[in-house]
Amino acid sequence: MAALGGDFDALEEQIEDIAQSSLRTDESMLRQKLPYIVCDAPTKRRRANRRLTCILLKDYNVPALPCPNKIAMDNKPSTEGSLETPQHPQGSLAPSTGVGFKAFAGQLSLLDRLLTPLILLCMIVGVIIGEFVPNVQHAFDTVRFKSVSVPIAIGLIVMMWPILTKVQYESLHKLFKMRDLYIHILLSLVLNWIIGPLIMLALAWATLPDLPTYRAGVIMVGLARCIAMVMIWNQLARGDSQYCAILVVINSVLQIVLYSPYSLLFVNIIGGGHSTQGIKVDYGDVAISVLIYLGIPLALGCLTRFLILGLTSRDFFHNRFLPFFGPLALLGLLYTILVMFAYQGHHILHNLGPVFRVFVPMVLYFCIMWTAAFVLVWQLSVRYSSNKAWRYDMAVVQAFTAGSNNFELAIAVTIAVYGVGSDQALAATIGPLVEVPVLLALTWVALYLRTRLRWGQDEDAESTAGCEPRDEKADVPLPICEVSCRNR
Questions:
Q1: CA-to-CA distance for 415 and 153, rounded, in angstroms?
Q2: Does the model's pTM come out above 0.90?
Q3: Counted domains in the chain
Q4: Over the stretch 12-38, which tens digit does the pLDDT of each residue have?
Q5: Which of 62, 68, 218, 281, by CA, is between 20 and 30 Å from 354?
């Protein structure tokens, strides 16, 4: 591995390159690449270097070596040269700090980075097609499947299939082995299935009291818990990937069971849809829609996952198959949005005011839910500092799971129940346009707060007790091997 050197900012970028490579590398391979962190530099930035070292040692579980220059100080002064980076054969993979925006953005795939502008582009192109191409709506309605045009139905199923292929169903049994996570799972269920829908309901009524059709679409978005993009946000913000995978499995199963009765409860009963024409949802229609547009992709996802894993290897599945198959979900989403806006082009141009008003409750919802969950876990971390269950990585999982939604399912159900040209479907389509940039910004906020907030005993970056290697015979701490830079 190339030696680490240069100024402090450049050094951070080099460390980020190491971290980024871990996202594309098998853990066993990373263990061969992970370096010891050593030093031979002036101490002008000793405090900052010491802080960064502690984070690295905790994140990567890399045992710090005694600084060679400090050991040899009495016999030989430190010499000028690049930092040495001997190979470390035993480190385990863990999240990195994510300090540079360039490195942070580089961890997103090209489609992920361009998702928001691509959604905007598809909306604009769709509106243009719908306004200036004659009989486009009639062409979409030529062949229908369960009240949904076949072009739309294909897009809805395709965009869910890769998402549900990524879910680690085989990890569900681990739920019963991790007893210390029961409290986290209970907290997540409360945030996702009680507080979240109620917050969205309140915001929809507060901001859209005179737009019942758009309000119903916003409520339907709030009922669909995220099972896809949350894994991307969790990875970028350095959350606990194993716990996130378990929550995704739980939410996938619960959505099949709960989405239909929740729609009836929040739209018809609490939301007042039973007394408003065109708002009321039918339980049977929602249940059939969930079965088709979540059940079929779920079955295809399970079949694809276990078939590929059985015929090949886990390394092939994650490093070869998913990078090829995964983008199909975003392409399916973009295709569905393009067709929807082509279908509603004329309607959108004459209702721009209500369309932009839909942004308000969604932005507020994502920010409120994310902040509430993140601050809650942080406060528990401070209060119960000796309990390592309340950590930064758990705060990330809770925040992004509570603050994001399965807009694909909401779009599918609103189209199937209300029609592709309905206000409800249009409101649901605004979901990804708002969610992606807002949660991307919140990912950056999480990384910033990681080192600015005190995370109890386990994440206290200022404390060096967890970073200092000890001489077992003498039972005294060895000098910290600080990550330093040469001031030129």
A1: 9
A2: no
A3: 2
A4: 555 555 554 544 444 444 444 444 343
A5: 281
